[in-house]
């Protein structure tokens, strides 16, 4: 029996197609299996245990095991009959009823006594145990006399010994007949001898069996209505029980269909057990975080719920299933166990098979890539004088030239020379963010530059040292002052005040003798000429070092610290190397980063007396010794300590193979050193290729030698306004990562973070793996069950059947190839991209670079700010972007306004939505000066943002802040014209002036509008056209009676600067203008023309019509270039794509017929409806476009513009 509580950070995903993968290495004789968070264990037929996966906190039971995909025997255990793997914890029971546990020991969760992690099995003082369960931060067992015992964290009452319960191993109150127990995330359930079930602890979603408003349940609560139960299984959000008759009953959260009742969404939770319909007789059940699987009596598997990372073995385009589906492996399954993102089975032949997440190698196949290297690996082709590590990348300086690798740019690269930099002496890599770039450098003349792209930053005098924090940087100048810019919400810039951001560098108050500077997550420390240290900013857990925990916007002296030579700021701790070779640290002691316990004053790290430099990352630090060796301590996840174990320790451990290091730098979970022979070696997290190994470094691989990368050099008064930083993997519980080594060579600081406007919640995830191979959902529809295809048809005249695959578009870097369309002549109005997901607030959300994902629903009346420029293939100087914005399961009817983060939200709507629905719209949106977009939502909602193109800075298109030009209701417009006219009559057109009003000039030839229907009297459609005679045969917006429905349109204006809006039924109309074109050297808007219609209706040339509905899970390929008025050399087209009478709920994805369908949705639909959306679509090399549909539906394609 295995339990898993949370969806962890995922580095790689393998969806099992049972005819393909090999069994887990060496586990050829498994009789039972248990899947934990990032590790797996199996009981073999000789009654021993083997485990594989992450060993960072000792979960494998072998203190010297490096962790990874190869199973290792748990020493000292024999006669084992049961194993349970939890969240970094493992417990085992032998045939005499004794139990042992090991691994993460938070509050005594492994051993029953709070203390350090248990890296080897520890016997629990209970006897005659008949069942044991390792949970999230607690564990439980049942003894033969029917009592139940639990130990570990009791924050939600999960130990079950009543309010104000004791510590250590406690007896569960009132239980004398227990036969089975299941520990989950902050709650517990057990099965009684009479076949009933009781639960207690955290009661969210009613999983403890009472109304969720009842709060925590501190003692067992009987679950009403259940009898004859033979198995109970718990997880993060729900519980399932198996009865003696083979039926399955589930209760708790059902938002992703995990209850299997055919329902999903927030209203599907139940505190009462609900029977799962459609199942045969079931023999065993297993639950995951938001999924469920069952093994039937014939050995077949049935799964339902979330398909996050292939958890239920569906293709990557299926976000979740609300009802069970059958999976038929070609062998008998005798046991199944599920963790957070992976599951494993033991077969009748003794082999073990796993699928899903492979973060720590828990799938057990050494040939599969993970995202870490626990010992140093060489970065071939790199010679260095010094090194610097940033968020997802690393750089070196060699003879003044800078070479970087990883994801400094929009995609993972091997070592690449940065053009535009020369004579560099000091270099720092950080996290960057919205306000600052991810890397900065100082040349021999003291010139300070940040990149990419390379831009000179004006400071008051020459720079001597630099450090980049979490969206801010500081530079120590040659006159002893420090100047900083960027985020200042905790006073980390040292100006004596707090503010969201400061764009212009200014001096830190009271600093006049600085020699070095180091920036952390939200604090800064400065080394002074008298070898003392001062720190400023947030003082959480005493990281300012002045003896308290009060934030300070002016610098404070670090208590008792003198003789300092180098300093390094981690995310929430700092370390200093003194002239006597000792190292002193202070701040938060997570996993031993400060050497013992959290301290608000410096404490000495034991065992170090010859240090010459210190470097810090997320919850760990390293020291370079005078011998050339390196020692590290703190968090061991991702192998960041470099000793090959992956284990955390508060005592310094020696890094393997390093004996001639001369320079060191660390950031997040990665460390790099420069050796005496000028080579570079790195270890730790490699989620974005930051070890120089792409995509992973499980074994050393050769990296291509550096090649020049063209960049442009500009000059500005401040750093580049938008970064291309990417998230690196981190297993730490800390938020943004930070690392900085302030030696003369380089320093490193904090990881990327997003910023939100004053009314928004925090956005980007600061610690997320970006190397996952598939998205959790390609559809933004909450009820979609689509299968994302693997390839599209190569013929243009027929429907193409697209088989499913185990991977979809990547969630690391930019999606698929994301190449842009360019013509080396006049500037393009739009540059199209293959669709890429830039934000997804849902719990299962994935994005192209791991940022702006799973941030939670946008609160009603608030704004969500998302970085756009500098991410994926959107350049830093983009003026606007073409995005598809989708709202998901809104709490009430309302609208979203997309705007460039101005002080006031414009009076305009970009997407209108209904309660509980999935509503998309394509929007061309002007970016803020920092390259961001803001999304104001009237009601609470989840939000998905897919980027499909951008407007270059030299484009003929001029983006505007949204402005209302017409409203037939009694509402205001920008100038009082075209308002309060009453509904547009059925079968008539409304003529609206566009050119010469607001910020649209008289000579504008094309406008980009958001047209909204409100309160239509009947179903119908809107056609927008340049007031030329009869409305063309095309639809831009389809609506139903009484609905509010928008669509963004690119519309050619009449010679008089007007547009006409034809409506089939009587309705109110609203027109918001978001941009225009004055001249069209690369873009031509045309009156709408129908290019494709699967119904028995005409197209303009009689082609691509009457094909019948497009089958679900397939793509329809339609030629665009070379037909009608679209020239042969067109690379993009503006399309209005409409789904008509779909057979089920789903989505459309419009893409340039690449082998894989991108992770994006352009139109979301419900059964039987008519749903359009305008799409600026990239064409493939043959001038074709493909439209993938999840469910069977008719499709219409109208062309309204093109380039070329």
UniProtKB/TrEMBL annotation:
Domain of life, source organism: Bacteria
Keywords: Guanine-nucleotide releasing factor, Repeat
Classification via Gene3D superfamilies: Regulator of chromosome condensation 1/beta-lactamase-inhibitor protein II
Domain RCC1-like: 25-314
Keyword Repeat among UniProt keywords: yes
PANTHER family linked to this entry: REGULATOR OF CHROMOSOME CONDENSATION
Protein name in UniProt: Alpha-tubulin suppressor-like RCC1 family protein
Organism: Ilumatobacter fluminis
Taxonomic lineage of the native organism: Bacteria, Bacillati, Actinomycetota, Acidimicrobiia, Acidimicrobiales
């Amino acid at each position: 029996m295995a339990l898993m509580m949370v969806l962890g950070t995922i580095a790689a995903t393998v969806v099992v197609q049972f005819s393909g993968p090999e069994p887990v290495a060496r586990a050829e004789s498994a009789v039972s299996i248990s899947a934990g968070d990032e590790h797996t264990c199996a009981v073999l037929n000789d009654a021993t245990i083997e485990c594989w996966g992450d060993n960072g906190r000792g979960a494998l039971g072998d203190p010297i095991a490096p962790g990874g995909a190869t199973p290792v025997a748990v020493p000292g255990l024999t006669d084992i009959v049961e194993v349970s793997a939890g969240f970094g914890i493992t417990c085992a029971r032998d045939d005499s009823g004794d139990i042992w546990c090991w691994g993460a020991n938070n509050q005594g969760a492994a051993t029953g006594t709070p203390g350090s992690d248990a890296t080897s099995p520890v016997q629990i003082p209970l006897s005659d145990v008949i069942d044991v369960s390792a949970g999230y931060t607690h564990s439980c067992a049942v003894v033969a006399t029917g009592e139940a015992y639990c130990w570990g964290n009791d924050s939600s009452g999960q130990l079950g010994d009543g309010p104000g319960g004791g510590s250590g191993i406690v007896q569960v109150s009132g239980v004398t007949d227990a036969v089975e127990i299941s520990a989950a995330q902050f709650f517990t359930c057990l099965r009684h001898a009479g076949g009933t079930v009781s639960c207690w602890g955290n009661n969210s979603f009613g999983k403890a069996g009472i109304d969720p408003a009842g709060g925590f349940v501190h003692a067992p609560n009987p679950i009403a209505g259940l009898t004859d139960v033979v198995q109970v299984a718990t997880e993060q959000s729900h519980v399932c029980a198996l009865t003696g008759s083979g039926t399955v009953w589930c209760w708790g959260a059902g938002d992703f269909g995990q209850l299997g009742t055919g329902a999903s969404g927030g209203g599907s939770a139940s505190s009462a057990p609900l029977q799962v319909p459609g199942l045969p007789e079931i023999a065993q059940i297993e639950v995951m975080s938001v999924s469920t699987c069952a093994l039937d009596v014939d050995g077949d598997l049935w799964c339902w719920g979330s398909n996050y990372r292939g958890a239920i073995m569906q293709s990557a385009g299926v976000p979740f299933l609300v009802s069970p589906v059958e999976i038929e492996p070609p062998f008998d399954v005798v046991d199944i166990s599920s963790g957070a993102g992976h599951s494993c089975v033991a077969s009748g032949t003794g082999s073990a098979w796993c699928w899903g997440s492979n973060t720590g190698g828990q799938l057990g196949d050494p040939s599969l890539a993970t995202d870490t290297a626990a010992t140093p690996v060489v970065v071939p082709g790199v010679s260095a004088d010094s090194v610097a590590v940033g968020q997802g990348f690393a750089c070196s300086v060699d003879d003044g030239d800078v070479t970087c690798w990883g994801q400094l740019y929009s995609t993972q690269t091997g070592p690449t020379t940065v053009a535009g930099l020369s004579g560099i002496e000091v270099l720092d890599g950080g996290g960057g963010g919205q306000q600052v770039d991810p890397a900065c450098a100082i040349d021999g003349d003291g010139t300070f530059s940040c990149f990419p792209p390379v831009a000179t930053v004006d400071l008051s005098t020459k720079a001597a040292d630099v450090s980049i924090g979490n969206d801010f940087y500081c530079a120590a100048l040659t006159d002893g002052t420090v100047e900083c810019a960027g985020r200042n919400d905790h006073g980390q810039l040292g100006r004596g005040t707090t503010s969201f951001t400061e764009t212009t560098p200014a001096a830190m108050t009271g600093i006049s003798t600085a020699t070095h500077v180091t920036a952390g997550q939200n604090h800064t420390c400065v080394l002074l000429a008298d070898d003392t240290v001062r720190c400023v900013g947030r003082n959480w857990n005493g990281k300012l070092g002045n003896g308290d925990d009060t934030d300070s916007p002016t610098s404070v002296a670090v208590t008792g610290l003198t003789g300092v030579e180098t300093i390094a700021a981690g995310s929430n701790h700092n370390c200093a190397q003194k002239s006597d070779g000792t190292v002193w640290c202070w701040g938060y002691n997570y996993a031993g980063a400060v050497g013992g316990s959290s301290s608000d004053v410096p404490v000495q790290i034991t065992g170090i007396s010859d240090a010459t430099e210190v470097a810090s990352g997320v919850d760990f630090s390293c020291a370079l010794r005078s011998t050339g060796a390196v020692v590290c301590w703190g968090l061991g996840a991702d192998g960041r300590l470099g000793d090959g174990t992956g284990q955390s320790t508060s005592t310094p451990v020696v890094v393997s193979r390093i004996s001639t290091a001369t320079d060191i730098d660390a950031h997040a979970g990665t460390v790099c050193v420069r050796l005496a022979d000028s080579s570079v070696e790195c270890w730790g997290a490699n989620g974005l290729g930051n070890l120089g190994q792409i995509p992973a470094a499980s074994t050393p691989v050769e990296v291509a030698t550096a090649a020049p990368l063209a960049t442009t050099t500009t000059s500005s008064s401040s750093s580049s306004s938008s970064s291309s930083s990417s998230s690196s993997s981190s297993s730490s519980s800390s938020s943004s990562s930070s690392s900085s080594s302030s030696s003369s060579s380089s320093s490193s600081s904090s990881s990327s973070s997003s910023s939100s406007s004053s009314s928004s919640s925090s956005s980007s995830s600061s610690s997320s793996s970006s190397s996952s191979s598939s998205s959790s959902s390609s559809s933004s529809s909450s009820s979609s069950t689509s299968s994302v295809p693997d390839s599209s048809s190569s013929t243009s005249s027929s429907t193409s059947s697209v088989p499913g695959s185990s991977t979809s578009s990547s969630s690391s870097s930019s999606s698929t190839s994301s190449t842009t369309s360019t013509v080396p002549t006049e500037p393009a109005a739009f540059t199209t991209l293959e669709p890429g997901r830039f934000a997804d607030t849902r719990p299962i959300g994935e994005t192209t670079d791991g940022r702006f994902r799973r941030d939670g629903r946008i609160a009603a009346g608030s704004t969500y700010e998302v970085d756009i420029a500098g991410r994926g293939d959107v350049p830093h100087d983009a003026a606007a972007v073409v995005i598809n914005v989708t709202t998901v399961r809104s709490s009430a009817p309302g609208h979203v306004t997309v705007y460039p983060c101005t002080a006031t939200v414009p009076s305009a709507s970009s997407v209108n939505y209904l309660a509980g629905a999935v509503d998309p719209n394509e929007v061309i949106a002007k970016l803020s000066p920092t390259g961001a977009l803001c999304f104001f939502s009237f009601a609470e909602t989840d939000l998905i943002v897919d980027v499909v193109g951008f407007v270059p800075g030299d484009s003929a298109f001029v983006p505007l802040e949204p402005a209302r030009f017409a409203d037939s209701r009694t509402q205001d417009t920008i100038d009082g014209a075209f308002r309060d006219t009453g509904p547009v009559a059925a079968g008539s057109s409304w003529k609206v002036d566009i050119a010469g009003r607001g910020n649209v000039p008289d000579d504008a030839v094309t406008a980009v509008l958001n047209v909204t229907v409100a309160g239509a009297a009947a179903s119908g459609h809107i056609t927008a056209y340049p007031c030329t005679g009869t409305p063309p045969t095309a639809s831009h917006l389809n609506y139903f009676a009484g609905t509010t429905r928008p669509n963004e349109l690119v519309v050619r204006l009449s010679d008089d600067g007007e547009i006409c809006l034809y409506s089939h039924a009587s309705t109110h109309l609203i027109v918001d203008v978001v941009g225009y074109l004055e001249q069209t050297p690369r873009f031509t808007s045309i009156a709408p023309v129908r290019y494709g219609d699967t119904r028995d209706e005409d197209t303009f040339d009689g082609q691509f019509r009457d094909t019948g509905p497009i089958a679900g899970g397939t793509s329809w390929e339609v030629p665009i270039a070379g037909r009608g008025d679209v020239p042969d050399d067109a690379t993009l087209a503006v399309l209005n794509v409409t789904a008509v009478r779909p057979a089920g709920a789903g989505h459309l994805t419009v893409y340039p017929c690449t082998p894989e369908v991108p992770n994006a949705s352009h139109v979301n639909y419900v059964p039987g409806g008519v749903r359009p959306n305008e799409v600026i679509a990239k064409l493939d090399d043959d001038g074709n476009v493909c439209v993938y549909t999840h469910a069977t539906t008719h499709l219409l394609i109208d062309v309204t513009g093109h380039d070329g």
